[in-house]
Amino acid sequence: MLTQTAMRNGSRGQPAMQSRRALVPRAAMQAGTIELMGACMSFAANAEIYKVVSGTVRTYKVLVDGRRQIGAFHLAGDIFGLETGDVHTFSAEAITDCKIIVFKRGTVMALAARDNDVARQMWELTARELARVQEHSLVLIKSAEERVAGFLLEMAERVPSGGAVDLPMSRQDIADYLGLTIETVSRTLKHLENAAAIEVPKRRRILLRDRSALRRLNA
User: CA torsion, points 55, 155, 59, 76, in degrees to nearest 10?
Assistant: First the structure.
């Protein structure tokens, strides 16, 4: 598995392989100018990948004490990896089978510099990701119930499927994303289920029975 250390390998002054391939567009950019520059690739679940277009990917870093912090879950069409430096802050892994489009950052940036439409698309994608990061930063001041409720509402919004949320990630992933233990996540889900806010017919399938109650917690 390609780790953060592996990502930093390479000669001085040059980014590592993962750093040279630094951008993925959202699915919303259907047949856009940027997409025509990429190459579609497939990766098996749990394989280290560069960038994702479909499937689900987690970006994470391992702390010095061995703990794992998940920075984000990237679903079908999400963009990540657009950073100012040559070395990525996070590593990336496929949670499910994924298809990705890989781009050279310099090529995309050069195109954006001379094409206003591409520049606008880049701005919109970057602003959307920044808003998500800012929202996630508020997790640190919330209770366990607030964190779990907010996560379920976030997933329901990002993958609309009626009143159900099918989670591609494990409870350990959720715990590492929310800064909780897996026991706390499981206990909180059970509490929300007992309060009739949700129903858990399967381990990774959550029915949102009372979104108003979840929104009040997330407020």
Answer: 30
